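Late entry, evening session. Most of the bench is empty. Finally got around to the prediction I had been postponing all week. Sequence below, unchanged from the version circulated by S.P.
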Amino acid sequence: MARERIRGIARFRRLLRRLPDAVRGEILVELHVTGREILRAVQARAPDLTGRLRAGLQSKVLPTSLRLQIGLIGTPAGRARLFYGRIQDLGRKAQVVMVQRRRRVTLSRRDGSTYSTLRTDARGRKERADIVATYRMKVPAMAPKRFVTGRYPDLRATLNANMRGIFSRSLARIGAGDE
């Protein structure tokens, strides 16, 4: 969702690419473990009306760049189904929108049952003739819930402390000439 920019990150990433494989492996393990903890915390803060939003939250570790992603990630179709997650997380301002109510058509299936749908043209677009009413609707403001983009200081502190330990051990080994 939201990305934070940190000064000096490009230089730090170049340093990470030159790390020995053993250190990279330790960092990946730590990112996986902490990623699962952060994901559980994010899921606990997420709104849970149907459970689909919590189920759509994922964590992903990118091994080449040593990055951890947590949130509504996955395929574009999967993110599109959970579009409201971004609205819930970041909030929404009050606004007035134009709404078009359309006439529905009742069709029958081969087995004899019926269903209601909107008529579409050959390209799949809704037909203009089916518009029954156009009106304004007030959409109220929604405060952000910040379940993905929120601060998790205790989990960040744990991750930073563990990473400091990994880096200090690896630098000590490199300084001693082990790797």
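Two things to note before I forget:
Residues 21-45 form the longest helix (25 residues).
The chain has six helices and six strands.
Will write this up properly tomorrow.
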